[in-house]
Amino acid sequence: MEQSIKYTPFFLLCGVLIVSLIVGLLSRRHDRGGYGVQVRSIGHASIGAAIASNWMSAASFLGIAGVFFLNGYFAFAYILGWTGGYVLLLVLMGSQIRRFGKYTAPDFVEARYDSSVARVFSAVIAIVISLIYCVAQYKGIGMVFAWMFGIDYTQALVFGTLITFVYLVVAGGLKAARNPQMHYLVLIISFVVPLMLIAKKLGYNWLVPQFSYGRALRDLPEQASNAYLFPWTFGSPYEWIALCFTLMVGTAGLPHVLSRFYTVPNNRDARWGVVWGLFFIGLLYWSAPAFGAFARTWLTNSGTILTPAESQALADIIVIKTAEWVGLNEIFVSVLAIGGVLAAISTITGLLVTGAGAISYDIYYRLINPKATESHLLIVAKGATLALALLVLVIAVNPPGLIAQITAVAFALAGNTLFPVFLLGIWWDRANKYGAIAGMTVGTIITFAPILLGNLIPMLRTILPPTSSALVGAPVVILTMIIVSRLTPPPPEHLRRFLVEKVHSP
Questions:
Q1: Higher confidence at residue 31 or residue 299?
Q2: How far is CA 317 from CA 80, 143, 220, 271, in A?
């Protein structure tokens, strides 16, 4: 890392955050439904942009290119898994979830399974998912701030966290609404325009630089080119398929993704919103592989040799380093850097609010103090936000992997727990609360067993890779739910009628 301070990206970041607050103040709506979510129609493309904006985290903006830089073809599992998850949502659950009319995953679980225990269990899972997801975002912020200020990772992490929290407090204090459409536009422009300029610097097609991915790989020495083009150089077929499947079902079970379906006016908007969202997300994922390939090309052309440890250390900011290496103007390098920070801050904000909401309402109000007033719950939520932020900070000091890998663990937990509960809850009226609780218990064990016991039982990590355990876990949980539900009393008749008459009616 360079030891000099880069003022341009810092002042640009401050400027963008201030503009974001101003736009948020101008975008405040007064026609809101429950939980402060906007429920009026804003057009399918706008809904899609909002979905894409929710989705574009540090993992998408910084992490994917890093995995391509390290592992070539193997990284396609991330793109296929994450985009395929939206197709799964579109086909299996999007409009049905919308018909329940509930605003959070715990709300849905309680309404469908008629169980406060299942609700609290799902709330705890949502909190843990948010924590793991946030660790990846914090790492992204720490990496970029370390690059920006020439300080070590831990100092940068603390400073970046402080700025994030101050922004969250100021935005909350001013009641500034987040404008997802503007947010998406800023992120996609800050990602694609520098990529075009990098392609031009390297002599590739700059108008559509994504098409130069293959040519850049072919320009590598034969041995290196083959390593990045052959499917199983950096992993086995089982590992690739398991990762792809886990990310797919995890996407379909992730709380902050599902919440978008509760905030659109009708089912048609929910379906078309997913289609547009998939298109907007695809624009970013189409571009990310080119960053990894261009980085490899520059290293080859310049004769620079990185050790595996150096490559691993740079992978999560390879989009920024590539722009620097090819000699891009400082302004465009800075644009890439603040794009990564904005993606992380936005995701952290949403996840901390989701986690704090689950603590204040689903746990504190439902279990501890049912007589709590709204102002009391707000104080608890603010305290929970601070506690969660500090907890994530402590964990993020020693991040356990790449940004994309940490994020994948959150998807594994969602795929092993919430996805089966949602899937059977929608499509099988015999699924009951006993099955849901047993399923979430088994899914939680399957997710964390290889992480906690992997050193004692190495076979666990082979069968259940921490980032990819849902290939085995999700079917096991579904089978568990079916067996337990069959062996216990059926759900109330009114719930089964609700599924037939409301959820699956034309």
A1: 299
A2: 22, 7, 21, 34
Helix (H) or strand (E) holding 260: helix 255-262
Four-residue CA torsion sign, 288, 203, 143, 447: positive
Residue 379 corresponds to which amino acid?
Answer: I
Separation between Cα atoms, residue 209 and residue 328, nearest integer Å: 15
Q: 105 phi and psi, to 5 degrees?
A: -60, -45
- CB-count burial class (<10 Å; 0-12, 13-18, 19+) for 376: middle
Token look-up 């935005």 returns 171
Q: What residues does 32 pair with on adjacent strands?
A: 38
Q: Which helix (H) or strand (E) holds 23?
A: helix 7-26
What's the pLDDT at 230?
79
Which of 205, 200, 402 minimizes the C-alpha distance to 318?
402
In degrees and rounded to multiples of 5, residue 204 shows phi and psi of -100, 175
Give the pLDDT confidence of 41-60 residue by residue, as tens digits. 557 788 778 778 777 888 88
Q: Helix/strand/coil (H, E, C) string of 437-468?
A: HHHHHHHHHHHHHHHHHCCCCHHHHHHCCCCC
Q: What are phi and psi of 9, to 5 degrees?
A: -65, -35
Mean residue pLDDT across the chain? 86
- pLDDT (tens digit, 9 = 90+) per residue, 124-134? 999 999 899 99
The secondary structure of residue 38, as a DSSP letter, is B
506 burial (CB, 10 Å; 0-12 / 13-18 / 19+) is: exposed
Neighbours of 398 (CB within 10 A): 10
Encode pLDDT of 469-488 as tens digits.
999 999 999 999 999 999 99
Q: Which two tokens stand for residue 175?
A: 């009641």
With cut-offs at 50, 70 and 90, classify the pLDDT of residue 260: low
Dihedral angle at the C-alpha atoms of 133, 138, 140, 143, nearest 10 degrees?
-150
Output the six-digit token pair for 440.
């979430």
pLDDT band at residue 38, thresholds of 50, 70 and 90?
very low
Helix segments in 75-179, DSSP class H: 76-88, 94-100, 105-113, 116-149, 153-174
Closest CA to 271 of 83, 34, 112, 93: 93
38, β-bridge pairs: 32
Taking alpha carbons only, the member of 276, 66, 280 closest to residue 188 is 280
Is a pLDDT exceeding 70 seen at residue 308? yes
Q: What is the mean pLDDT of residues 316-327?
A: 95
Inter-CA distances, 272 with 90, 91, 254, 286, Å:
9, 12, 19, 21
With 0-12 / 13-18 / 19 or more C-beta atoms within 10 angstroms meaning exposed / middle / buried, residue 217 is buried
Contact between 314 and 402 under an 8 Å Cβ cutoff? The reply is no
